[in-house]
Every structure is written in structure tokens, then in C-alpha cells.
Design goal:
about 45% helix; two-stranded antiparallel ribbon; single chain; Heat Shock Protein 90; alpha+beta
Length: about 210
Amino acid sequence: MVTSYLELLERRYRGQLDSEAQEFIYYAVDGATRMKISIQDLLSFSRAGTAVLKSGAVQAQAILDDALADLKVAIEQSHAEVTADPLPEIVADAGMLARVFQNLIGNAIKFQKKDKPRVHVSAQRAGAEWVFSVRDNGIGIEPRHAMRVFRIFERLHSADQYPGTGIGLAISQRIVERHGGKIWLESQLGTGTTFFFSVPDRAALKAQAGAYR
């Protein structure tokens, strides 16, 4: 409502207001828009922790495909190259896990040097879980900030440099942890970053439980 009335004010009195008044309106609209986005992201963060998990057997490749479909415009505009190794079947909430892939790949495209974005997705079995990795050739993250990036609304760069509210990785962490896994990263400043997240292999866990009986 605040944004709508400010835009109405700007349209109705365009040409009658001096440049300073126009600038005030611009900053007010921009601030209200940022607040709206922050509230929407906060709701997404809350839902990631409270929504019922609709887990089922699903091909991880299908989950990745859904995430890439949502990122189609960003991929085309940046000319990004996204590749993937064969991915396993897992037990997960497909919609939620697609959000994780979307956040990680979207960040890989956004936090980029002037090079063509290259992102590679793979998965390896590690004991009774699958460990997925999303590797990019972006700007990288200093090791001292490795845990900071998962904090809600935490940003390492200004919004003028890279848009966003800094909540995507916090949402991803919450989703992964709700699946019984964890998320972490390895990075080298100026070279790129690899994000890892684990998802328990329900079949392997069930087999282990049976072996101990």
C-alpha cells in the first residue's frame, strides 16, 4: 500500500515536483520495495522450517531439472553453462530440495566475475548418505566467512554490487537439516566455491538397521 500510494503521488504530480522531491519519492519507493522482499523472504525462511515434508522416492536429476527451469532466464541472460554427473534416486521432498539447488546455482551465476559462469553438480555416496556438490568458477569466499554466509540476512557484499537479501543460504541450510543432512562449503577467493550438502540414504540406513538386529 505504501509503495502504491507513493507511485500514485509520483505519477499524478510528475513535472510539478522539483528534483529533490522526486528523489525523496524514489528512495521511499525503493525502501518499501526492499521491505516487501525482506518480509517475503522471512516468510519463506519460516515455511522452510515448519512446512510438512512431503518426502518420497525421487530422481535427483528431476529435482535439478525443476530448479534449472526456474533459473532459465538467469541462465540464458548470463550464458551460464550448467552441467551434471549422473545423479541418484533419493528420498526427499522434491519441491524443497529443488529450492536448495535453485539457491546454490542461482548464487553461482550471480556472484560471478566477468567470466562465463560454469556450474557443475555431482553426487557421491558417503556411507549411509549421498553428498551432493555444486561447484562454480565465481568470485569465491574467504575462509573466515565460510559459516557467516549461512546466517539469516547476512551479506558479504552490498546490494548495489549483488542484489538479494542474503537469506537463500539460510533457507537452504534449514531445508537440508530438516532432511537429516548438513551443508558446508569449500572456497578459494577469486577462483570459485563448491557447496556440499548431504541427504541420508534411507535404503542404506534401513539395511544397516536390519544388520544390527
